[in-house]
Write a structure and sequence with these properties.
Number of helices of chain B: 18
Radius of gyration of chain B: 24 Å
Largest sheet of chain B: 8 strands, parallel
CATH superfamily of the largest domain in chain A: Cobalamin-binding domain
Bound molecules: CO-5-methoxybenzimidazolylcobamide
Structural class of chain A: alpha/beta
Number of strands of chain A: 5
CATH architecture of the largest domain in chain A: 3-Layer(aba) Sandwich
CATH class of the largest domain in chain A: Alpha Beta
Strand content of chain B: 5-15%
Structural class of chain B: alpha/beta
Helix content of chain A: 55-70%
Number of helices of chain A: 9
Oligomer: heterodimer
Strand content of chain A: 5-15%
Shape of chain A: globular
CATH topology of the largest domain in chain A: Rossmann fold
Radius of gyration of chain A: 18 Å
Number of domains of chain A: 2
Largest interface: A-B, 17 and 22 residues
Shape of chain B: globular
Distance between the termini of chain B: 74 Å
Strand order of the largest sheet of chain A: 2-1-3-4-5
Strand order of the largest sheet of chain B: 6-19-18-15-13-11-10-9
Chain lengths: 212, 489
């Protein structure tokens, strides 16, 4: 019996991480088209999650569970998508800058991007500038995200951007910055591409910029 | 005078959330968490101290057995006194039944007193906050409501304390980026007290630092805690727990995590210097699961803070609580409603130091106007917490019978004496319609702005009484700190 992608979407909406992962595996084994699995299963589910979130029918923990399910499905699906040359969301590297220990906002943002189909590499907190540069070289992400919650650590984000330039990799990656005291103007000032005010809107903004 | 036997009096309004059994269960949760899981401690010296004193150290992880917790709690001081910097007045007693309300530390922005628009917090704001708080009768201790943006990066904390202590005699609760900066602030406290011995006898500040939820003490936070313990500086060691995100979404679970991670500081402080003063508690609120905001106006903040206060009473620790704050961006009805709820909860629960009176925008903008409004609310709340005094004199049966039916009480000695106990508003409008109209139809916001600006313009704080030598010595400390930062970068 072929895998029912509608049911897969439902399971994703319900946040059934293991079930979604197994079903994706099954669908791949059944020889279903990876793009179909992605579009009609995973993304169809996440679209509903997004709508329900906006309508206040779903809340952050539920959205994050669904996002995790999306990530679990993507883990199975990504190699197939790559092999078939299908279009999909890329990789995001994210971390909190040096001297800053604020963790949870950055994690939330990363989880939301996972829900949008990105492969998310979460580097952690209190990171040296070089760690970001090395991660960009290593993972070749489409998106580099930096979080700073302190006015004293915000300048570190500018330093990273400069270091990316020096390393000759600035043009390979879009840079997004965020965190409670960070503003749109500040993001512009340091030469970031995207300012994220909160987790949900960051995903929309990043998609816009990356798809442009 | 008639005597009464077995007579129970309620001196204050009684308010209890948790039963004895509930408290015991929460406490057992703390003990089990500390014993079985413990906390990560990113400080070599601290781990070594804890390891040598009965804790189980495994890599970064420190597990604290029940008997170590018990001994730490037993060695806490029953009371600690803090003094004005001139040493002339006892300003705060850290002990059960004493509640002091104050602003909070470090938001990046400040509501500009002139334009009423938010902007980055600058150096002169620290002085403004200190002076206004000095003038407000219901503000019992002082924090800065911001972190200075226009001084050398990494020294905002030291400048803030240097300026504030010269502009208020009330106790300041300061904060610091690092152990080195606490040491600078300590030096400033010593200068203001008139020497090291004088400071030891009459400490004039409380230091504030924060462990990380869940169950983590980072090198800076626990380093500062260690410094304060060694030097017997009274301190607060409290997290900002985000319900549903960094701690469980249940209130009881949140309190267990908060209490456990702070207990690392309590145990350390009592090992290093038995009897030194330490206060725990913190911001206890929830993540708004729709907007991902850490809410400072949520009713959960009030209920959790009150429950946590009862837990700390239960084990004999003082509570650092939260009130008078709001999620709104502007002074409006919401800011008043949220502030009133949290202030009254904190008051009735009997929390000891209650901070964040003056936080707006969920802790992103400090607002001295909010503090001024809170001062009024605290006054009202304090009256209610005072309860109803019942004795021969207040029963007034003699007067009632003397006046009899009809007549009035306006001429009576009894009235002359007791009407003064009625609370007098300084901001609430009780004018007649005509007077209100004639006085320009001022709203609450207008009156708050007027009162605040009036204090800023006219209040004479203690600044002129700071000895010249002290001013010079403080400048030297600042210069040295600048030098250090320069050499490090
Ligand atoms: C890559 O692209 C993007 C895009 C969007 C991005 C993004 C990246 N990153 C974030 N976003 C955005 O999306 C997220 C989700 O919607 C959002 O993330 P947020 O992180 O904003 O939101 C979270 C979901 C919930 N919010 C939070 O997690 C932050 C809440 C507040 C209260 C806060 C907390 C909890 C903590 N703190 Co800190 N803390 C405060 C915060 C006040 C506030 N209201 O923000 C703030 C940021 N802290 C401050 C301070 C001063 C400090 N803190 C410190 C420590 C801590 C705790 C460890 C106790 C704790 C963090 C625990 C943890 N596990 O993360 C200290 C510094 C430690 C260090 N070196 O980093 C310390 C210095 C305090 C001290 N005296 O020691 C203030 C900063 C002041 C300033 N001038 O910058 C502060 C505004 C509080 C205040 N009112 O004073 C958006 O900002």
């Amino acid at each position: 019996m072929a895998v029912d992608l509608g049911q897969m979407a439902e399971l994703l909406i319900a946040g059934k991480v293991d079930d979604v992962e197994k079903m994706t595996e099954q669908a791949i084994d059944d020889g279903m088209d990876p793009s179909d699995i992605l579009q009609k299963g995973l993304i169809a589910g996440m679209d509903v999650v997004g709508q329900r979130f906006k309508a206040c029918d779903m809340f952050i923990p539920e959205v994050l569970r669904s996002a995790k399910a999306m990530g679990a499905g993507m883990k199975q699906l990504r190699p197939k998508l790559v092999a078939s040359g299908a279009k999909m969301a890329g990789t995001m590297v994210i971390g909190t800058v040096k001297g800053d220990l604020h963790d949870i906002g950055k994690n939330l943002v990363g989880m939301m991007f996972e829900g949008a189909g990105f492969q998310v590499v979460n580097l952690g907190i209190d990171l040296d500038t070089q760690v970001f540069v090395d991660a960009v070289k290593e993972h070749k992400p489409e998106l580099l995200g930096m979080s700073a919650l302190l006015t004293t650590t915000m300048p570190k984000m500018g330093e990273v951007i400069n270091a990316l330039k020096e390393a000759g990799v600035r043009d390979q990656v879009k840079v997004m910055v965020g965190g409670a005291p960070v503003t749109e103007e500040f993001a512009k000032e340091i030469g970031a591409d995207i300012y994220g005010a909160n987790a949900a809107s960051s995903v929309d903004k990043a998609k816009e910029v990356l798809e442009a | 005078m008639t005597f009464r036997t077995n007579y129970t009096v309620n001196k204050t309004t009684r308010f209890r959330l948790l039963s004895e059994d509930q408290k015991a269960r929460i406490y057992r949760g703390v003990i089990k968490t500390l014993n079985d899981t413990g906390a990560n401690v990113f400080h070599d010296e601290v781990r070594e101290i804890l390891g040598k004193n009965g804790c189980k150290v495994d890599g970064k992880r420190v597990r604290i057995p029940p008997e170590v917790v018990r001994d730490a709690l037993a060695s806490l001081p029953p009371t600690t006194t803090l003094y004005s910097w001139d040493g002339n007045e006892e300003m705060c007693y850290v002990e059960p039944g004493r509640s002091y309300f104050g602003p909070g530390p470090t938001p990046p922005n400040f509501n500009d007193p002139d334009t009423l628009e938010r902007r980055p917090y600058i150096r002169k704001d620290a002085t403004t906050v200190a002076r206004v708080c000095d003038a407000l009768p219901n503000i019992g201790y002082v924090q800065s409501l911001g972190s200075i943006s226009d001084v050398t990066n990494g020294l905002a904390d030291v400048y803030e304390f240097a300026d504030m202590i010269q502009n208020t005699r009330k106790i300041i609760m300061n904060w610091a980026f690092s152990e080195e900066n606490v040491a600078d602030e300590h030096r400033i406290g010593i200068v203001m007290a008139g020497g090291e011995e004088a400071f030891k006898q009459r400490p004039n500040f409380i230091h504030y630092s924060e462990p990380i939820s869940p169950l983590t003490s980072d090198v800076d936070a626990i380093g500062k805690c260690l410094y304060c313990a060694k030097h017997r500086i009274p301190q607060v060691y409290t997290p900002c727990c985000i319900g549903g995100a960094t701690v469980p979404a249940t209130h009881a679970g949140q309190i267990i995590v908060a209490m456990s991670e702070s207990m690392v500081g309590v145990v350390l402080s009592q090992i290093v210097n038995p009897g030194t003063c330490i206060i725990i508690g913190g911001v206890q609120s929830i993540l708004d699961m729709r907007r991902t905001i850490y809410s400072y106006g949520a009713p959960e903040l009030g209920i959790m803070s009150a429950a946590f206060t009862e837990m700390l009473n239960y084990v004999g620790l003082p509570m650092y609580s939260t009130s008078g704050c709001t999620d709104t961006k502007k002074m409006e009805l919401q800011s008043g409603i949220e502030a009133a709820f949290s202030i009254h909860m904190a008051m009735l629960s009997g929390a000891n130091f209650v901070h964040d009176n003056g936080y707006t925008e969920s802790g992103i903008t400090g607002d001295i106007f909010q503090t001024v409004m809170d001062d009024e609310i605290i006054g009202m709340s304090r009256l209610i917490a005072g309860g109803v005094e019942v004795n021969e004199e207040t029963l007034a049966v003699e007067e009632i019978c003397n006046i009899g039916p009809g007549g009035h009480y306006l001429y009576e000695d009894h009235t002359m004496k007791w009407f003064r106990h009625h609370w007098q508003p300084t901001l609430m409008d009780r004018n007649s319609y005509e007077d209100w109209d004639a006085q320009g139809r001022l709203t609450m916001k207008d009156r708050i702005v007027k009162k605040t600006r009036d204090i800023i313009e006219n209040y004479e704080g203690p600044a002129s009484r700071v000895p010249e030598d002290a001013k010079k010595d403080i400048q030297k400390i600042l210069d040295k700190a600048e030098e250090r930062v320069r050499s490090q970068s």
